[in-house]
Specification:
12 strands; about 150 residues; single chain
Length: about 150
């Protein structure tokens, strides 16, 4: 992006049609696909893509999920929302095995998550009831902090 007014495409990575999130952390891009999207019906999965060489992205692993939506990565923790099936944390020490290492699950309706920048491990989770805050200092035991309710 040396010339922001004239970006140049470096590569293309094709997968099932969807409008689901992509999160880049280090040398990996994480993509969720789910079958309830209005943009297309992909499989329910988390894809881990090696982007060490930006001109040649390589799918390293796909993990079957139940209904993945938004995700975020901070340090060795991947946070994942699965709609009505909850908010989950995974050990991301090795991105190529992340989907096999569930650490914790919170039973809330969760659509999207943002891990806040800085040194604290706090996640903002968007769900049916509003904006939840969870601490994940110990991703095997995420702690509820608060709910900012949203009313219709």
């Amino acid at each position: 992006n040396s010339d922001p007014l004239n970006p140049v495409q470096l590569s293309l990575f094709e997968h099932a049609r969807g409008c689901d999130p992509v999160f880049v952390y280090g040398n990996y891009a994480y993509v969720t696909l789910w079958d309830g999207s209005t943009c297309g019906a992909g499989p329910n999965q988390l894809d881990v893509i090696d982007i060490t060489d930006l001109t040649k992205p390589v799918l390293k692993k796909s993990f079957s999920m139940e209904n993945p939506h938004g995700l975020s990565v901070k340090g060795n923790t991947l946070l994942l929302c699965e709609g009505d099936l909850g908010f989950k944390s995974f050990d991301n020490t090795n991105p190529e095995t992340v989907g096999s290492h569930l650490l914790d699950k919170v039973d809330i309706q969760a659509i999207d998550v943002i891990s806040l920048p800085g040194s604290s491990n706090v996640a903002m989770v968007i769900g049916k009831e509003g904006f939840y805050q969870y601490n994940f200092d110990n991703p095997s035991d995420m702690q509820y902090l608060s709910l900012i309710p949203v009313e219709k």
